[in-house]
Design goal:
There is one protein chain. 40% of the residues lie in helices and 24% in strands. By secondary structure, the protein is an alpha/beta fold. The strands form 2 sheets. Strands 1, 4, 5, 6, 7, 8, 9, 10, 11 and 12 form a 10-stranded mixed sheet that branches. The protein has a two-stranded antiparallel sheet with strand order 2-3. Strand 2 and strand 3 form a beta hairpin. The protein starts with a helix and ends with a helix.
Length: 263
Amino acid sequence: MNPGKALAMSAIIAFVACAQAPQPAGAADDLLAAIKNRGVIRGCDVEYAPWNVRNPATNQWEGVNVDLLDLIAGALKVKVEHVDATWATIIPSLTTQKCDFASAGLYVSAPRAELVTFTRPFATDGIAIFVAAGSPAKTVEDLDRAGKTVVVRSGGFEEGVAKSLFKHATVKTLTADQAGIIALEIASGRADAGAGGYFGNLSFLKSNPNVKVKVLSDDLLAKTSIAYAVPPREYFFRDWLNAVLLNLEENGKIKDVLAKWTR
């Protein structure tokens, strides 16, 4: 056989062999079709107000992501199944197919992006400053004075933000991790202000209107994008979710859901 033809034939055989070889798990990119065939979309929930909250009276999941998941399922014409998870198990739950996507308040980060595929961000959380409802303070500068006390959770992300922001006020750390601890310290008069998660504290204040505390400004400090995560290489499903999220955003649905749980 002509050496050139032999080389060409070898290349063809190698190509066919590669095409017929088993593909790695997850490479099929068929999750969207599987959800439609199953008739159920499975979302992983992690307790984190106001994104995913288990109602103690009904034991059912509620919150921003629960409402959005219902809208997503409606667009796909399938039912919803909630899968309980924790921050430690949510990524493994995705990669082992226990749920179809992480329908939780998941912060976008580079380390997580090495393990999963993120959708477009649909919300931005971050650190905000809270003050008593009757406080005359308008800016951070009004609070950053000697004799003023600003509270934060010990070890929380907001501790570093507050200590870099307030140079003259006293930054007091709180070891308790209960919901609304920042707002409760301010309402009690033990602090002039507090730095904490924006949406989480707004959700607490909405649920506890007797706690007379307000956000100093809606301009967030140390912003963090929130998005949904899907298993790696499931690009069709990710892009479908992106299209739905974009439509919900453009029609004001996401804004309405956020307002329902935080305002």
